[in-house]
Design a protein that fits this description.
Blueprint (H helix, E strand, L loop, with lengths): L1 H45 L25 E5 L2 E8 L6 E3 L12 E3 L4 E4 L5 H4 L5 E3 L4 E4 L13 E3 L4 E4 L13 E3 L4 E5 L15 E3 L12 H35 L1
Parallel strand pairs: 2-4, 3-5, 4-6, 5-7, 6-8, 7-9, 8-10, 9-11, 11-12
Antiparallel strand pairs: 1-2
Bound molecules: 2-acetamido-2-deoxy-beta-D-glucopyranose (2 copies).
């Protein structure tokens, strides 16, 4: 009885895995386009657009016609997937559009110069893992910068300046090896800055940021202090063990001969 049950469960499991591995790819190519249309629809529905900049209409859509919408750029003529979404300075109002989760192929997102508020969602890296450029500057975003942005490993440009962001800059962002442009100026951030090759201006007008290229951090949590104490502790420990080794070696040799 138990054997049959086990066999049954195994069979069920294999069928399930087979479904996942074989059926999903068959569907996904045909649902990509649908997904990107969903993305645009839900962005339009979720934002106030007082000047009707988003002249997007979804009736009588032909294949890939949404690629010609204002602010939308697709991968290329045959590939109806959104590469670049640029909705800057349109006086759009609302929260970070949840619907962007359907724009899976997006690499460039510019929502700067609008009236967007609320937090930058934690799921951003899960939903938009291929981002190369993210520009949310000149809005009213508040709360902390999500540390999950460190998972957007292709990021070259991250512009969060002129918002109302608070708290510390997540140190994990220092892992973003491709960062060329990073701007968090004009927020209310404090604490140590990540280890980036960016100029001082990137951090201007915040509450109290510190660390290279700004003034060194004082007291606990300053990476310089930590490195220093670690290094001096290491040197002291090394000298101590070297000296005790020599003493015991010498005394050993001397007493051995007596
Ligand atoms: C994205 O689109 C905007 C507006 O059409 C354009 O100015 C910008 O250069 C584009 N970015 C890239 C990387 O193609
Ligand atoms: C944000 O606003 C400032 C000042 O109004 C302006 O200098 C800057 O170019 C704007 N940045 C973006 C990305 O729109």
């Amino acid at each position: 009885m138990a054997f049959i049950l086990r066999a049954f469960i195994l069979l069920f499991f294999y069928t399930f895995v087979w479904n996942l591995s074989c059926i999903t790819p068959l569907f996904s190519s045909s649902t990509d386009e649908y997904s990107d249309v969903q993305c645009l629809k839900s962005i339009k529905d979720s934002l106030e657009d007082p000047f009707n900049h988003l002249t997007w209409t979804f009736e009588h859509l032909t294949a890939g016609s949404f690629c010609n919408f204002v602010g939308v750029e697709c991968w290329h003529d045959q590939e109806f997937k959104i590469l670049n979404l640029s909705l800057s300075n349109m006086a759009l109002k609302g929260k970070f559009p949840q619907g962007l989760e359907h724009c899976k192929s997006l690499q460039f997102l510019d929502l700067s110069g609008n009236h967007l508020y609320g937090t930058i969602p934690l799921e951003i890296s899960q939903n938009l893992p291929n981002l190369i450029s993210l520009n949310l500057a000149n809005n009213s975003f508040s709360g902390e910068i999500p540390s999950t942005l460190a998972n957007c490993i292709y990021l070259n440009m991250l512009e969060l300046d002129h918002n109302q962001l608070t708290g510390q800059i997540p140190q994990q962002l220092g892992q973003l090896g491709r960062i060329r442009v990073f701007n968090v100026s004009n927020n209310m951030l404090s604490g140590p800055v990540p280890n980036f090759p960016v100029p001082e201006e990137s951090y201007a007008n915040n509450t109290e940021l510190c660390g290279e290229p700004l003034k060194p951090c004082e007291g606990k949590g300053g990476s310089f202090k930590f490195d220093f104490s670690f290094e001096s502790g290491f040197v002291a420990g090394f000298v101590f063990s070297a000296v005790s080794f020599i003493i015991s070696f010498v005394s050993c040799v001397c007493f051995g001969h007596i």
